[in-house]
Amino acid sequence: MAMNLLYHQSPIRLEEELRIIEKAKINPVHFGPLYSRYHETIFRYIFRRIDDIEAAYDITSQVFVKAIGALPKFEYRGVPFSSWLFRIAKSELYQFFRDSKARRTVSIDSVRIAEVMDEFLDDHSENDRERLLKVLPLLKEDQLQLIEMRFFEKRSFREIGEITGLTENNAKVKTFRALIKLKQLFNKK
């Protein structure tokens, strides 16, 4: 599985980030580099789930407003600051869905869908891809989120656990169970 260096950062980059966070805790003016580093990533995460550009910008803004407000409570846990931002984004998205009754969007590219299919099919066709696209939205929200984070966003189980509030091991188990459920749904179609 290819690694996305934004999520799998070196210890040096994590230390640099921690120094910026500590400075920003004292004076929010120093939050700028964190905003610059993660704004686009958080925006894309949100936009892929709601497919409404204006709402995505609004929610992204709210994520960073909340992050600045809660920064004094931030505790470093050995994962990138983005994990904390994604947790806030997840919460804001759920609030958006509750408030607006909006439908969640599943944004998938064909390369990554093939990786999911490789998990439970030895050989797959275009017809199988279409079936999988139809059953993905049938998963529960938390199951779909685990599949997305692991296969489409290439996150480690440690980071998935951090974002979802699970242990790393529990993130592995729940992702495996989500794959089993996806396979069951796929085989029924």
Could you describe the 3D structure shown?
This protein starts with 10 loop residues before the first helix and ends with a helix. It contains 9 helices and no strands. It has 189 residues and is mainly α. The protein is globular, with a radius of gyration of 18 Å.
Strand fraction band? under 5%
Major sheet size, sense and barrel closure: none
Query: N-to-C SSE series?
Result: HHHHHHHHH
* Shape call: globular
Given helix and strand content, the structural type is: mainly alpha
Please, how many helices? 9
Helix content: over 70%
Q: Work out the radius of gyration.
A: 18 Å
> Any low-confidence stretches, pLDDT <50, length ≥5?
1-7
Mean pLDDT: 82
Quaternary state of this entry equals single chain
Strand tally is 0
Straight-line N-to-C gap: 28 Å
Give the topology.
Layout: H1 11-26, H2 32-50, H3 53-70, H4 81-100, H5 110-118, H6 126-135, H7 141-152, H8 157-164, H9 168-188
Helix pairs in contact: 2-3, 2-4, 3-4, 4-8, 5-6, 7-9, 8-9
